[in-house]
């Protein structure tokens, strides 16, 4: 049993996806239960794996002599923790989806895609080599594309799916180059072999840094870091459970997970670490600023996800991947909770996502209200909720290593507390600001129970004895008093500002177009894409018009035409002249055949 | 004694006369008749070959069969050719080859 557990974890969602697609497509209810059952099996198997020892196993998948691709699993601290997060949060979100997608015609398609996504994500987590990881990495991209554009008849959803896929491909291309660089230098893609070998190869430092930066490109795409962050807010076009599962808890965490998995590539590469650190910090701060001016509840959460992912990436850049993982771990719970809470509000307000159309939900939706409050406090970094502990780990090491980084993180945290207070005050407190809000009702138990189940870990999982049970965080000397104090002050200040500014308001008192328009980055990309496309189109047009058309096509045609024109003067039109020439030809041929040789 | 050469000379003469007719006559009907003459020149030489290639006391029937084919095809050709000439005459009111040069550039 224990030997096959990783394979069961990996393949049960795939089997569910296949069964749903092939067999139970017309039976929507069966499809959803099948999908949930598959994740439940994966979750149970993950529990046995978590209790079991570290180990590795693989089968040869493709064997072409020197070129071998293995399909295998690597069970260690990292993947154990990640398995629990992915299957645990995934299970709750699957259950929640049953309620959320109740009236949906494409439910079978939705659950098949969800199962396919679970399969791909678990593949990344279990992978023991780069090739397998890359394959599943791409599969995650595909299934995320399917899920984002679930409502494919909406142009915006279809576009968002395309955008996510294309932007991810940009990052993945860099990732592929990085993998090839590592492979060609070391001759292996197995993490276990690569780890000890990499630093002993005596490679050029430039090569090491370049390889690490290219590998990091993959994480930039998948974890939506600046400058490839643009797809994540648009991905909110998908159903809310998808946003919770993919764009909060799992898929976007894959980038951070990958960085932690191959951290040995970054250890000897200080320049690459610097790049990682500052990309993370920039993302964190920019996204927090953007979030302060958004009106769509899911978009605010999307930007906060960006910001938190930036924080994790920055932690990797600081050289403490353990802190990043701890934050990933807690973030998965409270962000999934926030998204599911938002989904509960959205459903009960009949698909209203604008926070200025909400308000006064405290009495109407008590379970959603309290669980959302827990999630928001955890995200904002309020002690003793989970986010405080994990963020504190990052802040403390930032104070140890790099004071500038620490300041940026604190600034981002300030805005995080501020926009969460804004979101909470506007969406839940005050008076009803729309007809729908005054008729809001609490969601059914199938949706509220996952909320409660997620609220518990979001509240308590950060406590050191609990968190160290799941993840080994390195011991540090002394309590980082300074970091804790600063974080606390920042949290209180942010919450205070957000609370006082937005209390009892019916429209936004602050308007900063720069933030609301996301620093015009999307517009800039559109212009850039348009400009480069126009340039290419003009070059291609020139080549087509003058070289291919003018030179080759018209040239060949012209030569043929002029030959024909010259030759047609030979046609004299007299039948007997032709017959005479024909006879003459026969005579010449006869002469040649009979006498000349 | 008549030899194969005599046949072939007569055949060659007939062919030459026919060819000259094709080249020199201006009337399509006359050209057509000259053409028939050329076909029959070929027939004559084939018969000559058949007659003088005796094996086991029998002439070579392959050549004679070929002659039948030529006669048949010639008959078909006459039917088609005369039809074309009639159609041409109806369209152009002439059977003179010098007037039939509209394919010239």
Quick recap:
The complex is a heterodimer of chains A (597) and B (105). Chain A is mainly alpha-helical and 597 residues long. Helix content of chain A is 74%, strand content 3%.
Q: What global shape of chain B is seen?
A: elongated
> Total number of β-strand segments of chain B?
0
- Quote the average pLDDT of chain A: 85
- Biggest pleated sheet of chain A: 2 strands, antiparallel
Number of helices of chain A: 25
Tell me the Rg of chain A in angstroms: 31 Å
Strand/helix succession of chain A: HHEEHHHHHHHHHHHHHHHHHHHHHHH
Distance between the termini of chain A: 90 Å
Mean pLDDT of chain B: 90
Explain the overall architecture:
- The complex is a heterodimer of chains A (597) and B (105).
- Helices cover 74% and strands 3% of the residues of chain A.
- Chain A is mostly helical.
- In chain A, strands 1-2 form a two-stranded antiparallel ribbon.
- In chain A, α4 runs antiparallel to α5 (130-148).
- Chain B has helices at 4-24, 28-52, 61-92.
- The radius of gyration of chain B is 18 Å and the shape is elongated.
- The termini of chain B are far apart.
- The A-B interface holds A 568-569, 571-576, 579-580, 583 and B 19, 22-24, 31, 97-98, 100-105.
Main traits of this protein?
heterodimer; A: two-stranded antiparallel ribbon; 25 helices; about 75% helix; B: about 0% strand
Could you give the topology of this structure?
The complex is a heterodimer of chains A (597) and B (105).
Chain A: H1 5-22, H2 28-51, E1 55-64, E2 67-75, H3 77-100, H4 107-126, H5 130-148, H6 155-186, H7 191-198, H8 205-222, H9 231-234, H10 240-249, H11 251-261, H12 263-266, H13 270-291, H14 297-317, H15 321-348, H16 366-380, H17 386-401, H18 403-428, H19 435-438, H20 445-460, H21 464-470, H22 481-502, H23 513-516, H24 521-567, H25 575-596
Antiparallel strand pairs in A: 1-2
Helix pairs in contact in A: 1-2, 1-4, 2-3, 2-4, 3-4, 3-10, 3-15, 3-20, 4-5, 5-6, 6-8, 8-11, 8-13, 10-15, 11-14, 11-15, 13-14, 13-18, 14-15, 14-17, 14-18, 15-16, 15-17, 15-20, 16-18, 16-20, 17-18, 17-22, 18-22
Chain B: H1 4-24, H2 28-52, H3 61-92
